[in-house]
Write a structure and sequence with these properties.
There is one protein chain. This protein is α/β, with parallel strands linked by helices. The chain has one domain: Rossmann fold (3-Layer(aba) Sandwich), CATH 3.40.50. The protein is built from ten helices and nine strands. Strands 3-2-1-4-5-8-9 form a seven-stranded parallel beta sheet, with helices on both faces. It has a two-stranded antiparallel ribbon with strand order 6-7. Helix 4 crosses helix 8. The longest helix is centred in the last third of the chain and has 33 residues. InterPro entries: UDP-glycosyltransferase, UDP_glucos_trans.
C-alpha cells in the first residue's frame, strides 16, 4: 500500500478517536483553609486549581482577616462563629494557652457546621470530589471524615509538630525534631534532648489539642476518631518541603514534595539577581 494511503488512514483513525473521546471536566473541590500566613500557601494552590478549570468552594470564618468572602477564584461558605470574645482575650492569653484557644475556636466552628442541617445537606448535594485542607488545625480533616470524602493535605505542620513524624517512621536517634537545633548526627546527650523535644509534641497532642476535638469525634463521627489517625489516613500529602534539602529520613508513597511551589516568576527573579550583581560590581 502506498505510503500516502497509510498516512491518510492513520490520520482518519486519529481524528475518529479524538472525536469520540469524552470531554474532561474540572473537579469539584471543598477547601477548609487556616487563616493567617497559612492562607498564603493555600491561595497559591487555589490559583493553580482555578486556572485548570476546577470548581472551588472555600469554608471561611465570618471574622477572617485574610480569606475574602468574594473572590474570582472560589465560592465561599461563611460560618458565623463566636470568635469576637476569643479574639478579644486572645493576645492576653497567648503565652499561656495559645494552642488551646486556637483549637477551641475552630472546634466551635465545626460544631456550627455539623448542627446546621441545611449546610450539611448543601455540602452533601454538592458532590465534592475531595477536601483540601491545612492540617495545622483539624476541622477540615474531621469534615472530610464526616462527609466521607477523600482527603488531600497541604502540609508541613500538623496539629502538633512537623508532619513527617505522623506519616512515616522517624527514628529519633537520627532524625532531629524541628526547633531542637540538632542534626542527623547526635551523641547520646543530644539524642536525649531530641527525645525531650518529641515528648513535648506528644504532650501537646494528648493533653491540649486532642481534648479540643474529643467531644466532636464522640458525637458526630461514627465509632469515634483520633486526629492523628485521621491524618495518617489522608489520601495525599502535598508536603511544603524539598526532600533533597532535608535530613535523610523515611517517607511514604502518598507524600508529594512541593517545596518551591511559590517561586512562580523564575525569570524575573533571575533578572533581579543579575541586576543586583551588576550593581555590586559597579
Amino acid at each position: 500500500m502506498p505510503l500516502h494511503c497509510v498516512c491518510g488512514i492513520f490520520t482518519f483513525l486519529s481524528v475518529c478517536l479524538i472525536s469520540f473521546t469524552t470531554p474532561c471536566n474540572g473537579g469539584n473541590i471543598l477547601v477548609f483553609p487556616v487563616d493567617g500566613s497559612h492562607w498564603v500557601n493555600m491561595k497559591i494552590l487555589l490559583e493553580e486549581l482555578h486556572a485548570r478549570g476546577h470548581n472551588i468552594t472555600v469554608i471561611r470564618a465570618s471574622t477572617s482577616w485574610y480569606i475574602a468572602e468574594k473572590s474570582p477564584l472560589y465560592t465561599s461558605i461563611t460560618i458565623a462563629i463566636p470568635m469576637d470574645e476569643g479574639l478579644e482575650n486572645f493576645f492576653d492569653d497567648y503565652l499561656q494557652e495559645n494552642m488551646r484557644v486556637s483549637h477551641s475556636i475552630w472546634s466551635q466552628a465545626l460544631v456550627e457546621i455539623f448542627d446546621d442541617e441545611n449546610m450539611i445537606k448543601s455540602l452533601m448535594d454538592s458532590q465534592y470530589d475531595f477536601v483540601l485542607t491545612d492540617p495545622a488545625m483539624a476541622p477540615g480533616v474531621l469534615l472530610a471524615k464526616y462527609l466521607k470524602l477523600p482527603l488531600v493535605l497541604n502540609v508541613r505542620w500538623i496539629t502538633s509538630g512537623e508532619g513527617h513524624f505522623a506519616i512515616a517512621p522517624s527514628p529519633l536517634s537520627y532524625i532531629p525534631v524541628p526547633g531542637s537545633g540538632l542534626t542527623d548526627k547526635m551523641n547520646f546527650m543530644q539524642r536525649i534532648k531530641n527525645m525531650f523535644f518529641y515528648s513535648i509534641i506528644l504532650f501537646q497532642q494528648k493533653f491540649i489539642v486532642g481534648p479540643s476535638y474529643d467531644a466532636l469525634c464522640d458525637k458526630y463521627i461514627e465509632d469515634g476518631c483520633d486526629i492523628i489517625a485521621l491524618l495518617q489516613e489522608a489520601d495525599i500529602w502535598l508536603f511544603r518541603s524539598d526532600f533533597v534539602f532535608d535530613f535523610p529520613r523515611p517517607t511514604m508513597p502518598n507524600v508529594v514534595y512541593i517545596g518551591g511551589f511559590k517561586d512562580t516568576n523564575k525569570k524575573q527573579t533571575k533578572m533581579s539577581t543579575t541586576r543586583i550583581r551588576s550593581g555590586l560590581e559597579a
